[in-house]
Amino acid sequence: MTTDANLYDAIERSHDTTWQDDVRAGVRQVRDLASLPLSPAEREAAQRAAANHKVRIPKAYLDLIDWNDPADPIRAQVIPSTDELVEQEGELDDPIADHEFSPVPRLTHRHADRVLLFPTYQCAVYCRFCFRKESLTSIGRGYTREALKLALAYIADHPEIREVILTGGDPLSLSDKALAEIRAGIEAIPHVRLLRIHTRVPVALPSRITPGLVAALQGRLMVTVVTHFNHPREITDAAEAACRIMRHAGFVLLNQSVLLKGVNDSVEVLEELCRELMYRLGVKPYYLHHGDLARGMAHRRTTIAEGRALAGALRRLLSGICNPTYVIDLPEGGGKVPLGPCYVEGHDGEAWRIRGQDGEVRTYAEIVGEDSRRS
């Protein structure tokens, strides 16, 4: 565990170089791949794949890659591969139906009490497995106040909406001024209670998490930041410092990971990731996503059976607070559905057969009042 003194040193070091410098020193376009320590064949393959979908990797994240390991889990997430160009029948441009449930531009309303708001379609880092990579490549637009007018008006006209989720693109890649404007626009709508932010920035560009960013997001609304750590090697001193800044600001921190073949599809990796998220960063493991049907991602998807086995193993190894829920985000807007193990084997009236974590099936006899039986 890093001490507070070391953490504050890490914060100071990260701010010696601005987050914009970190972005500029990394990979920002296809031609920047030529500067990476790749073989000629690997470079040609990466450039070919990057021509199809955007590439951007901040230097802080590049520095985590072990270039001597072709199967490095950090490398696998951001360095383009020609495997991405192999599409399978049934893969989709819009795997979770963002566009089908978009009544106005920049907004998706798939669930009654919450909406997705897209202030930008640009990211600090472009993950190769992203389920929105088709949209991010084809749209590519950033933030303007005018672009969100219809979306904010829609939210104001729907009093059932209690939660606004900033996604994209990565909302924390925007300036403090833009974030403050967006937050103010949302909190001016009385029935909205919570602002949720989905971001990869604390992982790939932790220097972006500054007191100014935090201040831009503070106001009337409860703020929840959902990070996206996939591997324990991503949990660095700088990431720890970034999360501590947000925790001290009173933000609720959650994490959603994607189950990725060759990256985190082992009990040992997921166990370490979930423990360190909670115990070191103070970030609750929230979801472990089954890989969406994004085009060209078959080589990174596990089977559901493999995912269920991993989820069952984590349930036995980790405390509840460290356990994520294994989910699939169904096509056609079906929403997130838990895929984890079910321990109910069956029942006969009030006698239920339930399998314990030790594998043994026990009978649990319900004992309830007469009113409960009648209902």
| Class derived from helix and strand content | alpha/beta
CATH domain fold name of the largest domain: TIM Barrel
In N-to-C order, the SSE pattern is HHHHHEEHHEHEHHEHEHEHEEEEEH
CATH class of the largest domain: Alpha Beta
CATH architecture of the largest domain: Alpha-Beta Barrel
Account of the protein in words:
With about 375 residues, the chain is α/β, with parallel strands linked by helices. It has 2 domains: about 350 residues, Alpha-Beta Barrel (TIM Barrel); about 30 residues, no CATH class. Helix content is about 35%, strand content about 15%. The protein contains 14 helices and 12 strands. It has a 9-stranded mixed sheet with strand order 1-2-3-4-5-6-7-8-9. Strands 10-11-12 form a 3-stranded antiparallel sheet, with no helix packed on it. The longest helix has 15 residues. The model has no long low-confidence stretch (mean pLDDT about 90).
Topology, please?
Layout lengths: L3 H13 L2 H6 L15 H11 L8 H4 L10 H6 L28 E5 L2 E4 L15 H6 L10 H8 L6 E4 L9 H12 L6 E5 L2 H4 L6 H7 L4 E6 L9 H12 L3 E7 L8 H15 L2 E6 L14 H14 L7 E6 L4 E4 L5 E5 L2 E5 L5 E5 L4 H5 L1
Parallel strand pairs: 2-3, 3-4, 4-5, 5-6, 6-7, 7-8
Antiparallel strand pairs: 1-2, 8-9, 10-11, 11-12
Helix pairs in contact: 1-11, 8-10
